[in-house]
Amino acid sequence: MNPACFDVRDFGALGDGKTNDAPALQRAIDACAQQGGGTVVLHNGTFLSGTVRLQSHVELHLTSTAVLLGIGDLRQYTQDAHTPYRQIARSLIYASGCQHVAITGQGTINGQGELFGKQESDDRPVLVRLRDCHNVRLEGILLQNSGAFAVHPIHCRQLRINGLRIDNDVRPNNDALDIDGCQDVFIANCNIVSEDDCIALKTTEPGVPCRDIVITNCILSSYCAAIRVGPDAVADIQRVAVTNCVIRNTRLNGIKIQEVMGAMMRDMVFSNIVMEDVGGPISIRLAGWKQGSGNVWSVLDDRNWEQGRLGNILFDNIRARAMAGEPGMFIAGTPGTKPRNITFSNIDITFPGGGTAADAARRDVPDNERMYPEIGMFGILPAYGLYMHHAQGITLNNVQFHLKADDLRSAIVCDDVQDLELNGFRAAGHPQAETLIRLQNTQRAFISNSRALGSIDVFLKKDDGACREICLDGEAQ
After folding, report:
1. Domain with 14 in it
2. Quick one: 240 and 185 in the same domain?
3. Please, what sign has the CA dihedral across residues 121, 125, 130, 136?
4. CB of 322 closer than 8 Å to CB of 328
5. How crowded is residue 292: how many other Cβ atoms within 10 Å of its Cβ?
6. What angle do CA 155, 161, 166 make, to 5 degrees?
């Protein structure tokens, strides 16, 4: 039996790009729901609108000739009173407590974000917000020019996002997909360009974890991060698989994992990924973030940050080229919060180089326990490739670091690291560099089948007497 089809023009929509069609669109959606569900169709026009609310068993379908255009008047958008984000509580499309809802088609949803304020403190609507919905499909649509996030599902289950095209880079906080406390999520075949994070996993409301997430076959580009886990995480994030993705032209990290509010992040795999022109391919942070009562963006509870845990993460089969002007990669915790059991396997990364002897000599990298986590939070690092600070159980198997230009820093620096294993590690160095690998306060490290790519003076240096049980190719050092 074919589902019922409801043409919004039959309910008074004009599609002239000037008239507020929101009342007509809402009448069509409500009529569809009242008759047991079906498809509400927008076609052959530009439909100006404020907030419309989806209902259960309703599919909103935009043909390739349709544009849903966000109105420039904030008064036409209703607010979600529960979101902790103060300035982006409004949305163009909203659903709450619905089942079997969908937004599909080859049409366009344009938020006209350029009509709203430019500051993070300015009130701006997102394009799509879905709260407590089950069995959701988002397919094919072009999403562009939101005032903030493009899509923000909260506490949704059985969420399918397939083939979206997202161009979202006209305002601050122009994330593309913010998956917030959702479960059983599939994101596939998306092409995303965003000012802020392309795909962000988060938990902004306590008690509801984000878990069982699959992201695959996507092309991602961002002024911030391509894939970000946290730092807005007051509940656990776990069981995440990201595979077969291309990340390009991304100013900060390709992948960043950040727990700063006392929750747990674990059991994640990132595999078969190619990165080109990224600021830093990967960063991992477990610490705190003191927002303060005057924060204009959000209020999230970080009082229990020292209970945070992060571990069981695998990066496998990744090729990356890092751009100049940003630090390399880091895994950083604090003395009481250490990332654990992180594995890099079959990794090949080219770094820009340019580090000086003064950069290499740095031994005063601060913990910055309550600083907002970002790629440049520690300044220029003493390692051009991977800096590890307060971490345990780090393994590198068949990892190669290359350089575009000379660099006098070490390829790897470890400071307060336990249970380190390097097997088949190869890295570019410099004859005038202090060492290829530097260990500070490091215990139980095993290095085998590893070598420099080119001429160096010193391969491994133990920086202090706190280093113990260091084995190089099976011989104690």
Report:
1. 1-196
2. no
3. negative
4. yes
5. 8
6. 110
